[in-house]
Structures are given as structure tokens and as C-alpha cells.
Amino acid sequence: MTHPLPFKLKIQIMCGDEIAMGPGKADLLDAITAHRSISAAGRAMGMSYRRTWLLVDAMNRCWQGPLVATVPGNQKAGAHLTELGEQILAQYRAFQCEAEEAGRGAFAAISGHLLDAPRPPKRSEGPARDTPISEA
After folding, report:
1. Is 63 within the bounds of a domain?
2. Fewest beta carbons within 10 Å, which of 35, 58, 100, 125?
3. What are the backbone angles phi and psi of residue 123, rounded to the nearest 5°?
4. Could you tell me if 28 and 55 are in contact, meaning their C-beta atoms sit under 8 angstroms apart?
5. DSSP 83-122
6. What CATH number corresponds to the domain at position 59?
């Protein structure tokens, strides 16, 4: 998702204390669709095998049905999004677009106060040394 304005919205859908869907999980679902493999999707995203499977497991436990299905076997092994997974991903991406559009109006109200880049940090001078330090 491109950000023509200097703001970024991060939408997370919660299921209890678990993140059921967020930008990273949506990207993982896109990668699973592209690679037809959970492991390959994780590698493509620079994630460990364990982390990738934990994210898929969390998504599959948070919705009424699994979002990702696996097919065991040597020649036809792989993974794909379920019908529910495709629906949730499409609706989440639409939600992201709608939120960004809504954010444009709110951002316009404050953007005039935003600098192009942050000022450099102020140096800490420490305590003033107006008086000489006496030896004991």
C-alpha cells in the first residue's frame, strides 16, 4: 500500500488478546497465495519457519473457520487460502483503503503544522561550569 501523504495507519483486528488480522498477517496471506506454500511465503518475507506457522495458526484459531488450508503429500503438498480466507483478506484490504481515505481529511487539518523533517535533537550541555571546581 503506497502512502502519498506522510501518515501510516495500522489496523489490527483483535480476537480477545490475539491479533486476528493486521497488515503483516494480510501480507502473509498474499505471500501464501503467491507461493502456494506457508514455508515459502515465510522465507519470501524473511520470517522463520516457526514464526510463519505461529501466525497462520493464530489466524486459523481466530475466525469461524481456517483462513489457510494445507494439503499434505509429496507432489501436491502446499497451502492455499480458504474461501473464508480470501473473503477476509479482500475485506481487510478494502478496510485499509477506506481508513486511509478517511484519514486524508483528518490529516489535512493538521498537516500544516508538520515539518518536512525533524529538527536535530538538542544537545545536553550538562551542568553549567561557571565556577572553577576546587580540589579538596
Report:
1. yes
2. 125
3. -75, 140
4. yes
5. HHHHHHHHHHHHHHHHHHHHHHHHHHHHGGG--SSPPPPP
6. 1.10.10.10
Three-state DSSP at 19 gives: strand
The backbone region for 16, taken as left when phi is positive above 0, alpha when psi lies in -120 to 50, beta otherwise, is left
- Residue 122 to residues 3, 59, 119, Cα–Cα distance (Å): 30, 44, 9
Grid cell for residue 66:
481456517
For 59-86, letters b (16+ CB in 10 Å) and e give bbebbeebbbbbeeeeeeebbebeebbe
pLDDT in tens, the chain (136 residues): 454 557 788 999 999 999 999 999 999 999 999 999 999 999 999 999 999 999 999 999 999 999 999 988 776 779 999 999 999 999 999 999 999 888 888 888 888 888 888 999 998 665 655 555 555 5
Number of residues in the chain: 136
- CA dist 59 and 63 (Å) reads 7
